[in-house]
Amino acid sequence: MEKLTTIAKRFMPQGDIVSVTPYGNGHINDTYLVENTVEKPIILQQINTHVFPNVKMMQDNIYRVTTHIANYLENAVSSEHLLRIISSSNGQLYYENERGSWRAYNFIPNSIGYETVKSPHMAYSGGKAFGQFQKMLSNLPGDPLYEVIDNFHNMKFRLDKFNKALSLDVKERASSVPELIDFVQRRAEKMCILLELGEKGEIPVRITHNDTKLNNILFDKDTHEVLSVIDLDTVMNGYVHYDFGDSIRTYANAAVEDEPDLSKVYMKISMFEAYARGYLGAIGKVLTETEIAYLAPSAAIMTFIIGLRFITDYLDGDVYFKTAHEHHNLQRAKAQFKLVESIEKQMSDMQRIISDICRYL
Ligand code: ADP
Ligand code: GN1
Ligand code: MG
Predict the structure, then answer these.
(1) How far is residue 183's CA from residue 179's CA, in Å, rounded to a whole number?
(2) What residue ranges of the chain have pLDDT lower than 70?
């Protein structure tokens, strides 16, 4: 079997590989930091082909998106902070061997990813970065991006998967989670609102990131300024709410995603406000009235859909998300559902904040 250092060498042909070290906290791919005697460090990833079976499509999407953004930002941002794919030595956007599929990126120097927000300014900067990201991609030339994961944020599809997992109950876990099942069933219908608005043509399809959690932006270790939006695996068509809601889920959560002590999990309205200010300042003028009206509800919807995916994976026997212990997905789902309740309770304040921000755009 080809060794990690040999695989790394395919993306870093000069000098000698010094180290290949597991890196970051992603739930999907296996990520390594690779250091070398002469070249700048790179990020090497073994792509999770169970989640992304069509690697070529995904890499083509990422190549188009990173090149477009680089053209946009070339004078505004230092080039070492622009994410780019590093081709393998045979000139391809990824490399395949008997172990699977591999790709590399330039390592963004002096960067750090966070699991909880450290200041309102950080939330503001994250919002601004994702607003700008959506704006930059609004004029991506060429064909639509490939749909790398079908129905990724389709609530009805996710509810069907949950119901299937519940009826198969392969690990016999369903009887231990009645309160979570009840939580899902009581909200299922109203959580489909974005899908219904989309089907009726009341909100437009745009290009969205689709995985805008806090640790998918890299911040400067010292200044906390945004350096780069990363994890572009799921960039494809979507509604802006997917990105806004998924961000609030992590930027405004007082606790980490898998916090076991539920008393620590709630939405900090100050962080919601800061993120919304940054986001709307960047893209607010482009959004329609209906899009704006559903930004606050999208925080509850996206937190719910990710909780739903965690509990579904728990019932399925933990086959999708990486887990650190036996009940990890259950712990994550409970924390997400607690956050949904907190967001629901603050909905009218959130709507007022959005209206106030929009008045001065
Ligand atoms: P996953 O899909 O598994 O979440 P990511 O692409 O988000 O994988 O990478 C996992 C983590 O690795 C990120 O959260 C970040 O901390 C780190 N990382 C990824 N790409 C880079 C990069 N180009 N430079 C520095 N750190 C990176
Ligand atoms: C996964 O890849 P990562 O860890 O950034 C997942 C997201 C979930 C998130 C929950 C491709 O994101 O959809 O919201 O975990 N990515 C994929 O933390 O399924
Ligand atoms: Mg990630």
Answers:
(1) 6
(2) none
What's the half-sphere exposure (Cβ side, CA atoms, 13 Å) at 299?
35
> CA torsion, points 145, 150, 152, 155, in degrees to nearest 10?
130
* Structure-block tokens of residue 207: 């290009």
Verdict on whether the full-model pTM lies above 0.90: yes
Other Cβ atoms less than 10 A from the Cβ of 102: the count is 24
What are residue 106's DSSP bridge partners?
42
pLDDT at 76: 87
Nearest atom in ligand 2 to 28's CA: 2
Nearest to 254 by CA among 268, 244, 240: 268
Strand order in the sheet with 226-229: 111-112, 217-220, 226-229
Residue tagged 């755009």 (tokens): 361
Which one, of 138, 116, 119, 123, lies nearest residue 277 by Cα? 123
Residue 90's SS3 state is coil
CA atoms within 13 A on the CB side of 155: 25
Is the Cβ–Cβ distance between 210 and 217 less than 8 Å? no
Supply the pLDDT for residue 75.
87
Tokens representing 109 are 């120097």
Q: What is the DSSP letter of 101?
A: E
**Ligand 1 surroundings by CB, under 6 angstroms:** 23-29, 31, 43, 83, 105, 107-108, 111, 113, 215-216, 218, 230-231, 233
User: Both tokens of residue 254?
Assistant: 């007082």
